[in-house]
Amino acid sequence: MGANTIDCRVAHGAFVRLLYRLGHQQASGILTITAPGVRELFALRRGGIVVGDELAKRTQLARLTRLASFGALDASFEGGISSYPPGAQHVVALAAWARAHLEAQLESSLADKLVRELAGMRLSIKSELAPAPNDEADRRVLAAMAQPRRLDQIAALARIPKFRMLAFVWFLRSIDALEVEGIVAERSAPNRLRPRDPAREAAARLLGLDDHADVEAIKRAYRRIARSLHPDLQPDADDARRKSLERRFAEVTAAYELLA
After folding, report:
1. DSSP run (H or E) holding 125
2. Which ranges constitute the DSSP H helices of the chain?
3. Are 32 and 41 in contact (CB under 8 A)?
């Protein structure tokens, strides 16, 4: 979605996603939202709604929350307009608001449902929609999800409370920033289960892994095997032994390059 011009019907649930993307793209311009009996205009600067003071900021937050409850809306955005309300000093950051709004939706029953739906799935983040981290815990979650991993693997690497991690995953899913891989995941082309690849399976077996091992596991296996096979680390080997080591080292290196 480009942020220069938008003119579209926004279905229920998509309004928050639209705001996140405008915020994420640091959009500037005028956003107009229309619904039966409602017409709201927002002046955006670098991904935030410009307001005059804290009271106006709270008012804008309430307006956004109200609009998010509508069944459907008409949205138009004209980028590049640089006029802002007189005395504007504060900004409601749209990406941050969208995250807070969506994470607040998650309660225990919805969290349990999310775990059931994603159990065994391998999750990662679409890089073009990855949020800016708020703190060190966010940075650990983002690093863990830079490549496909299961929920339990993400939790172990991120070292944060389970509910906070699930709230973050719910937010990513709601803004369509979550990539899902797995047997029971119903996926379209970008998210389809990777087809069986005999070459990858053979390479994984050579490294003593299954073909779903993550990059760190692949690197560890390669380093361990490479140390035992590298000809330079066995100076006393005779010519026949060195040729055997060189052949096996080349095979292991090729397997590593295929998997990593």
Report:
1. strand 122-125
2. 14-24, 54-68, 94-103, 108-118, 136-144, 151-158, 162-174, 198-206, 215-229, 239-259
3. yes
For residues 149 and 163, is the Cβ–Cβ distance under 8 A? no
Query: CA separation (Å) from 204 to 92, 110, 112, 117, 256?
Result: 49, 37, 34, 28, 8
Q: Provide the 8-state DSSP code for 71.
A: S
| pLDDT confidence bin for 190, thresholds 50/70/90 | very low
Closest CA to 141 of 123, 121, 155: 155
What is the tens place of the pLDDT at every residue in 220-231? Answer: 888 888 888 877
- Are the beta carbons of 194 and 185 closer than 8 angstroms? no
Cα separation, 257 vs 195, in Å, equals 19
Query: How many Å separate Cα 85 from the centre of its chain?
Result: 34
- Tokens describing residue 122: 């391998």
Q: Residue range 209-218: average pLDDT?
A: 74
DSSP letter (8 states) at residue 238: -
Cα–Cα distance measured from residue 37 to residue 42, given in angstroms and rounded to the nearest whole number: 17
Nearest to 175 by CA among 104, 102, 112: 102
- Give the tens place of pLDDT for each residue, 92-150: 999 999 999 999 999 988 899 999 989 889 999 999 999 999 999 999 999 999 999 99
pLDDT at position 142, please? 93
